[in-house]
Design brief:
heterodimer; A: about 475 residues; mainly alpha; about 75% helix; B: about 375 residues; alpha/beta; 5-stranded parallel beta sheet; 5 strands
Chain lengths: ~475, ~375
């Protein structure tokens, strides 16, 4: 079920109208049932995958919990491997089987084996959000194995709800067991502040999705359907996509957090103003925080993190970003996207000294300091947008045509454009209004903390919420699905 | 070591929980009321929809709603020839010229046309359900092979709200191309009028506000004649057959595997409903094929598909064979231009008088021209 659908609104009304009248125990079972209804709307058979993942990790967790903290690292290892094998097996099979087979067939044919890929490819359906819930369940078992969680969850319904909790099931935030699981064991409690913030977050998420992200999607979509022809159109479509993906993804997280609050649960924030940031590492600290933390805690740090020298640190960063790219999808584009992101992180580390030198020189005057800050933000934004070409383009050839159109035709098209900006495609030109809105809202939140101001005053909150509601209703709640549903 | 995950925040009291639950229930009522208020402002005749009406389906429904039956039947004989179909039918007939011809020949019929882009049988039945069909009337409905694609809905890209406008719940539920989620989505879209018209309402509001900004007063409402007009050919429409790129031909090519002549195709079901509606009213149904340019089949239709279509068409009991204009009588592959329209309209006038006595091929050689030219062609607003 999509959040931005009429059926979800009906679903939510049903859930909330029943939920508040149930006992604590009934609430858990009811939410579990509704979470499976929510997920089963795509294809009921896919619920078996979540169920399998849940049963395996619940069982592994119980077995690990029965061991002392010291024994877990030795006698508990088979249970950890079982969990990893099942979850990574599911993920690998459904998400990567066809990709790797295709690549192997290509390699085989290059060696002259004459293989037919059609014979081996299964055309598997990608279960929605599979990477999110498999990461969440694996994280639980790994935490138990490492002793970060002392006691396993003994109630199957609560654990199953932790895996399938519908607000964050298909596109995160990826919740960690020590934060979410204890909340299911506590009695139901709600405050007016939670209701107020929940309603605000849901409406904010919907405004971001249906009013901004979907408008941007409509403007950009036609340009990515074919190979890039015009330099300026391609460059603008590239920049606008980076706005779209931020608004689209963060809107999902906002709705998830808001839904959690209305149900009495706290879901951790997934974004911390990542749209206008002065450096690439800073951006990754603020973007998709829950998943970044998973990569940090379960891959980067176990690999040695930054404790084993400069070279090893950079290798670890590249490896993590490569895996991050691969997580997004089984295609060369995502692999390149991950590696390019890793390269920029490494590049930033190498350039840190000259950058600091320039930064200290600009500190003296406000104009130079602010100017330098926004110059860095612009360079960072353009770098991210350039890398995102590989994220957005449907195939390798389209991505190459965009890179070629934007970077390989010299400065002439840009100079011509600056002389006569009217030549910009009108569809893209119109979309700039939304980008300015996002930028203004982003910076207003950073400097004025608008959200706190809105939430602290009943009057402001009411006006803003009704305005948001009017906007959403008039723009229509249906639209294309969230970009991160496919991951 | 990884940083520890923070524990969940502390919980509020039981009393606060009671208050919060009451608040959330009250808010649900407030939002429900607000939605009702907003939804009540949007409908087929609402203020902003009048400014933003831009779709053929919407224009046709307005025309049906505004139809004055007494006026339509005010001529001697009082019978009506309802021309209902897609843009191919809309562009094939000039109602003004036809009515003049019918009046001059003393026919008891007058023509009324409802043509819309992507208005194949599945959509046209929505119009026919609303028309005051009477015994003695005739319904001329256009059918084309291109509307029997297996993936017709996806291929023509009909927006959901437009499907909802023209189809009833049972029709939507029977659409095999739509998944359950999409069907349920359409069925829970209530109040229906709000979902059907809110896009045009938004467009109207934008237009109205832009008018205020630029002209200091709202722009005039578009005139409701869309269903009577036809597209003004554009430069790009003048492409000849040999101008089409391979990719375009491949994209539009209709092979036998793309053709669906089964009874559960949306347009087949629509046609079945049209037959039933017309029969129940005591009127007569005549099906007209829109064959497109003579070269259309050569380029865009596979041989097996054409044969299957011809065999199906030959089995239909209520068809009429019209002359086919030359390639020069079309502005694209399937839509007649003024030259083709004049010819088809003239044949319709004669055919209405003599009822199938003149074979179409013989008629073309020594045909009469229509007595009067039609109104100037206007480019209809919006996406038509």
């Amino acid at each position: 079920m999509l959040f931005n659908s009429k059926i979800f609104v009906v679903f939510l009304v049903v859930v909330l109208s029943v939920y508040y009248f149930l006992s604590d125990r009934q609430k858990i079972w009811f939410l579990l049932l509704m979470s499976y209804v929510f997920y089963g709307f795509w294809d009921p058979t896919l619920c078996t995958l979540i169920m399998l993942s849940t049963v395996v990790d619940f069982g592994c967790g119980r077995q690990l919990g029965a061991l002392s903290l010291e024994d877990r690292k030795t006698r508990g290892r088979p249970w950890l491997w079982l969990s990893l094998a099942v979850n990574l097996g599911l993920l690998g099979f459904f998400k990567y089987y066809d990709f790797f087979v295709e690549e192997l067939v290509l390699a085989g044919n290059w060696l002259g084996l004459g293989l037919d890929s059609e014979r081996y490819i299964l055309d598997l359906i990608l279960p929605v959000g599979i990477s999110f819930y498999t990461f969440q369940t694996m994280a639980y078992t790994i935490d138990l194995y490492r002793g970060d969680i002392r006691e396993p969850e003994r109630d199957f319904a609560r654990f199953a709800l932790y895996v399938a909790f519908f607000p964050q099931l298909v596109a995160g935030p990826v919740e960690r067991a020590p934060h979410l699981l204890p909340q299911f064991s506590r009695p139901f409690r709600l405050s007016r502040d939670m209701v107020r913030e929940g309603v605000f977050m849901i409406l904010l998420g919907f405004v971001k999705k249906v009013v901004i992200a979907d408008r941007l999607a409509r403007a950009i979509e036609p340009f990515y359907l074919e190979h890039a022809k015009d330099t300026i159109d391609a460059a603008v479509a590239m920049l606008l996509f980076t706005c779209q993906i931020y608004v689209d993804f963060s809107s999902y997280s906002d709705i998830a957090i808001g839904l959690g609050l209305l149900l009495g649960y706290n879901i951790r924030s997934n974004f911390n103003l990542p749209f206008v940031v002065p450096s690439i590492p800073e951006r990754w600290r603020r973007w998709h925080i829950s998943m970044s933390h998973c990569f940090r805690d379960y891959i980067f740090i176990p690999l040695g993190g930054s404790r084993k020298g400069v070279v090893r640190t950079q290798v670890n960063i590249m490896l993590v970003m490569f895996l991050s790219g691969l997580r997004h999808g089984a295609s060369n584009n995502f692999v390149v996207w991950g590696l390019l992101n890793g390269s920029t992180m490494v590049g930033h580390k190498l350039l840190i000294r000259p950058l600091r030198f320039i930064s200290t020189r600009t500190e003296r005057f406000t104009v130079t300091r602010v100017g330098y800050y926004y110059l860095c933000c612009w360079v960072t934004f353009c770098t991210i947008a350039s890398i995102n070409i590989f994220f957005r383009c449907p195939d390798w050839d389209t991505a190459k045509s965009f890179v070629d159109a934007i970077f390989n035709r010299g400065l002439e098209p840009y100079v011509e454009f600056l002389k006569d900006p009217e030549t910009l495609h009108s569809r893209l030109y119109d979309a700039f209004g939304w980008v300015w809105l996002v930028f203004a809202a982003h910076e207003a939140q950073r400097y004025l903390d608008l959200r706190t101001k809105i939430l602290s005053s009943w009057r402001t909150w009411s006006v803003v919420c009704l305005a948001f509601f009017w906007w959403i209703v008039n723009f229509g709640i249906s639209g294309p699905e969230f970009i991160y549903y496919q991951f | 070591m990884p940083k520890p995950v923070p524990p969940p925040p502390p919980q509020p009291s039981v009393e606060e929980t009671r208050r919060a639950v009451r608040l959330s229930q009250a808010l649900a009522l407030v939002f429900l009321a607000a939605f009702g208020l907003i939804a009540a402002q949007v409908g087929p005749d609402s203020f902003f929809v009048e400014y933003g009406r831009k779709n053929g389906a919407s224009w046709n429904l307005k025309a049906v709603a505004d139809l004055d039956e007494a006026e339509v039947r005010s001529h001697e004989g009082g019978r009506v020839l309802w021309l209902v179909g897609s843009s191919m039918l809309r562009d094939s007939f000039d109602v003004q010229a036809i009515n003049q011809g019918l009046a001059e020949s003393g026919s008891p019929f007058r023509a009324v046309k409802f043509g819309q882009t992507r208005g194949a049988s599945a959509m046209s039945r929505g119009i026919l359900r609303r028309l005051p069909l009477r015994e003695g009337d005739m319904v001329l409905h256009g059918v084309s092979i291109v509307n029997l694609r297996r993936d017709w809905l996806e291929y023509v890209g009909l927006p959901d709200w437009r499907v909802m406008m023209m189809m009833e719940d049972a029709d939507i539920w029977a659409l095999k191309e739509w998944g359950t989620q999409k069907k349920v989505e359409a069925l829970v879209a209530r109040p229906q009028a709000f979902y059907e018209y809110h896009e045009e309402s938004m467009h109207g509001m934008t237009r109205w506000l832009e008018g205020l900004v630029h002209k200091q007063r709202p722009p005039s409402k578009p005139k409701g004649l869309n269903h009577l007009r036809w597209r003004k050919p554009k430069k790009r429409d003048k492409k000849r057959t040999d101008d089409f790129e391979e990719e375009v031909i491949e994209d539009r090519f209709l092979a036998i595997t793309d053709l669906d002549l089964s009874e559960d195709h949306p347009n087949m079901m629509g046609l079945q409903d049209i037959r039933q509606l017309v029969a129940e009213s005591g009127a007569e149904l005549v099906l007209l094929e829109h064959p497109g340019r003579p070269s259309f089949r050569e380029v865009f239709v596979g041989r097996e598909a054409a044969e299957a279509w011809d065999a199906w068409w030959a089995r239909q009991p209520d068809t009429v064979h019209f002359p086919q204009p030359e390639d020069s009588g079309y502005y694209d592959m399937t839509h007649p231009n003024p030259e083709g329209r004049e010819m088809l309209s003239a044949y319709l006038v004669e055919w209405m008088g003599e009822r199938r006595r003149t074979p179409a091929e013989d008629w073309v050689k020594n045909r009469k021209r229509l007595p009067a030219p039609s109104e100037p062609v206007l480019d209809p607003p919006g996406d038509e």
